[in-house]
Amino acid sequence: MDHNAHKIIYIVDEENHLKGVLSDGDVRRWILKDGSIKENVSEVMNQKPITLLHTEINQANQLMSEKKIHSIAVVNEENTLRNIIFNSNEVIYSEKIQLPVVIMAGGKGTRLYPYTKILPKPLIPIGDTPIVERIINKFHDYGMSNFIMSVNYKKNMIRSYFNDLERDYELTYVEENQPLGTGGSLSLMRHLLTETFFVSNCDILVDADYTDIVSFHKKKEHDVTIVASLKTTQIPYGVLKIGEDGLLESTEEKPEFSYLINTGMYLINTSVLDFVPDNEFADLPTIIMEAKNQGLRVGVYPVSEDSWLDMGQIKEMEHMIDSLGVN
């Protein structure tokens, strides 16, 4: 699914009969039910997808619009898959999101030395566009136009870049006089955050439906929604399991383990600001855990492994450039 741009797979049998469809949303719901990613696809897929007869193909665009789906299978009378129709490659969002976006851009980016000795991490180019501008553009595509950026290291360079940029969104800078971490700087923004807001690190890109994240957050009545990426790690060796007596019980060759990784993107209600210390260093995950321990609802919105790109280290930055095809 990560290797096709449409994030959907149509499943057929040996005779090309349509058996079901598997979308990234199906996978996300399965993970949220604590389902195993090693489960057979037949247990996860939608076994009754919306279809069109090949004689009704002219109705495809209307039906996709009515059902709010991005593709539809065309079948014959025997339910044999004849074609798949996708809507326009142009993304048109029916509902604009009008929420503020906080971008944490005050760190030194020491893991990206020597690049960050010259440029602040937010301005490191991915192709011909700085990473932080790519992040802003992604949110802006969904209608968001109120951005708040915490700055500290080489802050004047960041200001100069955006001051010279033609843009149709508002960008407010919040200056940290000392490093405050990914959570502490929120204490400087209390007067700017009067409604639910997004938070993003300045070195990540998340390819997801941001409208769906907001809907998920509201439907589940979360105080915090953490956007998480599925990450699979393989041990490249045979693993031995031993008993209490030290004797071998079993072996497993090159096992794989799957985890949900914090992407560094959040949707947060203003109630969480009560747990942010004033002008003190604090990590946002620590603040979120304190809020959870005090009874606030913290949920997780999973995305696929390739939907999250991180450039916190040089190797990861090179992977991001390759993945975006902007060498």
The count of domains is 2
- Number of beta strands: 18
Strand portion: 25-35%
Structural class: alpha/beta
CATH superfamily name of the largest domain? Spore Coat Polysaccharide Biosynthesis Protein SpsA, Chain A
Element string (H = helix, E = strand): EEHEHEEEHEEHEHEHEEHEEEEHEEH
Poorly predicted regions are 89-94
For the biggest β-sheet, the strand order reads 10-9-6-11-16-13-17
Radius of gyration: 23 Å
Q: Give the mean pLDDT.
A: 88
The helix fraction, in percent, is: 10-25%
Reading off the top of the CATH hierarchy, the class of the largest domain is best stated as Alpha Beta
Distance between the termini: 24 Å
| Main sheet makeup | 7 strands, mixed
At the fold tier of CATH, the topology name of the largest domain is Spore Coat Polysaccharide Biosynthesis Protein SpsA, Chain A
Q: Which structural traits does this protein have?
A:
single chain; 327 residues; alpha/beta; CBS-domain; 2 domains; 3-stranded mixed sheet; 9 helices; 18 strands; 30% strand; globular
